[in-house]
Amino acid sequence: MTIILAHRGYSSKFPENTMKAFVKTAEAGAEGLELDVQMTKDGELVVIHDEKIDRTTNGKGYVKDYTAKEIRKFDAGQKEPIPFLKDVFTWLSGNSMICNIEFKNGLFPYKGMEDKVISLVREYQLEKRIILSSFNHYSVVYANQFAPEIETAPILAEGLYMPWIYAQSIRSKGFHPNFKAAPNEIIKQSLEHNIAIRPYTVNNESEMERLMKAGCSAIITDDPIKAFKVREGI
Ligand code: G3P
Ligand code: CA
Question: What one GO molecular function would you report for this record (predicted)?
Answer without folding.
Answer: phosphoric diester hydrolase activity
